[in-house]
From TrEMBL:
Superkingdom field: Bacteria
Native species: Chryseobacterium arachidis
Domain (M23ase beta-sheet core) ranges: 51-118, 137-166
GO molecular function: metalloendopeptidase activity
UniProt name for this protein: Peptidase family M23
């Protein structure tokens, strides 16, 4: 009896330690805005090639709202970049966490002046500056910036993250006790099953109609033709906000036994691309539908994400089995889907070909004029890789079809393409590799090994070599020599092939700070060009992906 009592005490102690270790300080961090938190996106929401790593807090469609420090600490870092976070502030706190505030318009005055001085010193707009604890200390609630719409933002809002300072893992901010009203359970709108004898990519998703009966979601008995299957679910969390937020916690049970579960508590930026192994990538890219797997794909190695078995269900009989799927948000609001599954007549499985690429195995494949080398981490599931060439009159190579853009690649692969004619050294210096993946293009400058151009990409599509003798350019928003009394100077950039890789502006011979806003370059008038300063000459030098440089000169009066 004493042994039993001690065992119970020991188990309770262990459970208490585990619970304590998973607790995060409640009430330590305040709302980073002075308006109620209204979410446009939550932690773990599905994004293109990454999980959403924080909270998107709405700013009532306005810019320049005060952004304040969520707790005492110091500004440890700032970033200024074209895409991504745009203008961002990192505040490190004494409790082991760092908060991040992104898409900002402006830093607080002293910090903004420091960054500006550094930009002029470096003659470079993009910055990534680290600070010591005594340079810019802040207190809880202190103004640190003004909200905005910079970087990879589609509308005014504040992106807010909480990170483990030591590991730099992003942690779900909703675990820290922010006061956000939420009484709505996750909403389920679809259920899918996959034949797992070969790959989730072939033959792909099988949709199941889901209906809500009372408080429970149900479907008809699911008849499957494979003894090995897995499930995926289409669901959103509304959280009283009106936006489609991501799912936090899911459990899958068969006949009352846990088969698979995932919970999105913390993710490192080094691992965020594993999102492509957690969702039906084909559906996401091709059909714009977000479906999350309730199983592990063999090449999905995201730590601290899933538990239970791998989620693959083995149906060894023709009996009817009970399936239950439980979804929860951070506040514990719960939805349930109950259904049944039964193996009917088994069909033939998809077979592999001589170019099958498997997870955890590197592979090199060749065509007559191209070669692709995939690492062992390249694919999440088995792929029957289809690679072929076709003539291309616009290019100095054939077009190389690399399977299709609906299959994800986790890391960078090496691609080699041979030219279809002998190029001079000058032509080689102006050659780029273009990868078209349907929704966009990625263009890089070619590296040469004899007549073979080499480059690295992390998406599939159609690649080709292009000779680019064109010049990049910018177009001013003002007429030549005009008097400008208000508003910024805006230059619209253009490059026929690739992108403008570098930009330099000089006002009357001195470097002038233009911000990169998507494809535009913007200068907001300041003491470098005050009113009444007379006539000015603006020289702009742009360089494109191929390395072609163009110098343009514009005049205006102030």
């Amino acid at each position: 009896m004493k042994i039993f009592s001690r065992l119970i005490i020991f188990i309770c102690l262990i459970n208490s330690i585990i619970i304590f270790a998973q607790n995060y300080p409640q009430g330590y961090f305040r709302n980073p805005l002075n308006i109620p938190i209204n979410l446009a996106a939550n932690f773990g929401a599905v994004r293109s090639n990454h999980f959403h790593m924080g909270l998107d807090i709405r700013t009532n469609s306005q810019e320049n709202l005060p952004v304040v420090a969520a707790a005492d600490g110091y500004v440890s870092r700032i970033k200024v970049e074209r895409y991504g976070f745009g203008n961002a502030v990192y505040v490190t706190h004494p409790n082991g966490y760092t908060t991040v505030y992104a898409h900002l318009n402006k830093y607080f005055d002293k910090l903004d002046e420091y960054v500006k001085d550094q930009q002029y010193k470096d003659e470079k707009w993009e910055q990534n500056i680290s600070f010591s604890p005594n340079q810019f200390p802040v207190t809880k609630g202190q103004l640190i910036a003004l909200s905005g719409n910079t970087g990879g933002s589609a509308g005014p809002h504040l992106h807010f993250e909480i990170r483990d300072t030591k590991t730099e893992e992003c942690i779900n901010p909703l675990l820290f006790g922010f006061n956000i009203l939420d009484g709505i359970a996750p909403i389920i709108s679809g259920l899918y099953w996959y034949d797992r004898r070969f790959s989730t990519y072939e033959p792909g998703a099988n949709g199941i109609v889901v209906k809500k009966t009372g408080s429970v979601y149900t479907s008809n008995v699911i008849q499957v033709n494979s003894p090995q299957i897995s499930f995926a679910i289409k669901a959103v969390d509304k959280a009283n906000q009106g936006f489609n937020l991501g799912i936090y916690d899911v459990e899958l049970l068969m006949d009352g036994k846990l088969v698979y579960s995932f919970k999105i508590d913390r993710i490192h930026y080094n691992d965020t691309r594993y999102i492509n192994g957690c969702v039906d990538y084909t559906k996401f890219v091709r059909d714009k539908i977000s479906i999350q797997h309730l199983s592990n794909l063999p090449g999905m190695k995201l730590p601290n994400y899933s538990s239970g078995s791998d989620g693959i269900i083995n149906l060894s009989d023709n009996e009817v089995h009970n399936i239950e799927i439980i979804l929860k948000d951070v506040n514990g609001n719960t939805s349930r889907l109950t259904t049944k599954v039964q193996l009917s007549n088994s069909s033939e499985k998809v077979s592999s070909n001589n170019r099958t690429v498997s997870p955890n195995e590197s592979k090199t494949m060749k065509s007559e004029n191209a070669e692709i080398s995939l690492s062992k981490n390249a694919v999440y599931d088995v792929v029957n890789f289809n690679m072929y060439e076709k003539p291309d009159a616009e290019a100095v190579s054939n077009s190389i079809v690399l399977n299709n853009p609906y299959i994800p690649i986790h890391d960078f692969f090496s691609l080699k393409i041979k030219t279809n004619r002998k190029l001079t050294s000058e032509e080689k210096d102006k050659t780029v590799i273009e990868l078209n993946y349907g929704s966009d293009k990625n263009t890089i400058k070619a590296k040469w090994n004899g007549d073979w151009a080499e480059g690295q990409f992390n998406r599939l599509g159609t690649a080709r070599l292009l000779l680019d003798n064109g010049l990049p350019s910018v177009s001013p928003s003002w007429k030549e020599g005009t008097l400008i009394t208000s508003g910024p100077l805006r230059l619209k950039g253009a490059a026929k092939i690739g992108d403008i890789e570098s930009f330099r502006a000089e006002l009357d011979g001195k470097w002038l700070r233009f911000a990169r806003v998507k494809d535009d370059f913007v200068y907001v008038f300041d003491e470098k060009c005050p009113k009444g300063s007379g006539s000015h000459t603006l020289k702009v030098i742009t360089t494109n992906t191929a390395g072609n440089a163009n110098t343009q000169t514009f005049t205006f009066q102030r």
